[in-house]
Design a protein that fits this description.
The structure holds two protein chains of two kinds. Chain A is mainly alpha-helical. Chain A is built from four helices and no strands. Chain A has one domain (9-129). The longest helix of chain A is centred in the first third of the chain and has 22 residues, at 35-56. Chain B has a domain at 17-92: Multidrug-efflux Transporter Regulator, Chain: A, Domain 2. Chain B contains five helices and three strands. Chain B has helices at residues 20-27, 31-39, 56-65, 77-92, 104-108, and strands at 17-19, 45-48, 51-55. In chain B, β2 and β3 form a beta hairpin. The longest helix of chain B is centred in the C-terminal third of the chain and has 16 residues, at 77-92. The chains are: A mainly alpha, B alpha+beta. The interface between A and B is medium-sized, with 34 and 25 residues.
Chain lengths: 149, 110
């Protein structure tokens, strides 16, 4: 008898709903750069987490025919409108393609790994366009007062 | 292609003005996504009591410029994908336009 999966399918279904909503909104949104990229990165990370959960729940990945032709559209296509370093966008295209190829297969780990790759390069592009605000490092703590006497 | 013809095959309710929920339902999106377009001035809306109303013509215009947003009416799943791709190709006038990556979790694991 096979052991119980560490994550229930119900948990995956519950996590999938908000992640899918964020993904749908991010690929269809019209946010200006770099906000749109940050939203997309967050959504890609969300997809990766849910698919990772699905793997833990022993759920199979169903191959999606033609996925390597997927697009994220509206300003993210190759033609026109892209901001940021071209070499990062080349990497973005490469990782998007890799995601599509992974989705056409049945290796669930390859799919969530590819989503993580897309997330990371998207953050890189967003940061290249608008570097994130560095948080002020916390001031050194005062040394404890010596007890008098 | 005649640009005056709508490229969208979405079945919107036959009213002059539509609510956010009606648009979201017709497009297969969440109301939050439609409200986002309103906030970003992609769609103009007016307040009617507690509801926001949007002119149907404005929605059609948005769909004609972004045909992949629409959910083709009464088509099966594969047909919807093909129709969206065909509509996008028609709108852009170029081959190689690609389907939008939606429904990833739904088709992959759920």
């Amino acid at each position: 008898m096979s052991p119980e999966p560490v994550v229930s399918r119900q948990t995956v279904r519950e996590a999938a709903k908000p992640a899918e909503m964020l993904w749908e909104a991010s690929v269809r949104a019209f946010d200006p750069y770099p906000d749109r990229l940050r939203t997309l990165a967050e959504a890609a990370g969300g997809q990766a987490r849910v698919i990772q959960l699905a793997e833990l729940a022993d759920m199979p990945w169903r191959p999606r025919e033609g996925a390597r032709e997927i697009s994220l559209a509206d300003g993210l296509e190759e033609i026109g409108g892209r901001q940021g370093p071209p070499q990062l966008w080349e990497e973005f295209d490469s990782r998007l393609k890799a995601l599509g190829v992974a989705m056409e297969g049945d290796n669930i780990r390859a799919v969530w790994t590819a989503f993580e790759g897309l997330r990371d390069i998207t953050i890189e592009i967003a940061d290249a366009i608008q570097p994130p605000i560095e948080e002020t490092p916390p001031a050194d703590e005062e040394p404890p007062q010596k007890q008098a006497g | 292609m005649d640009r005056s013809e709508p490229v969208s095959t979405v079945a919107l309710p036959d009213e002059d003005e539509l609510s956010v929920t009606e648009i979201a339902t017709a497009l297969g999106l969440t109301p939050a996504a439609v409200r986002l377009w309103v906030r970003e001035d992609r769609l103009k809306a007016r307040k009617d009591g507690r509801r926001w109303l949007i002119r149907r013509d404005d929605v059609v215009e948005l769909l004609n410029t972004h045909p992949h947003l629409g959910k083709p009416h009464l088509a099966d799943r594969r047909g919807r994908r093909d129709a969206a791709l065909a509509a996008e190709r028609s709108a852009t006038g170029r081959e190689g336009s690609r389907a939008i990556a939606t429904g990833v979790l739904q088709s992959g694991i759920l």
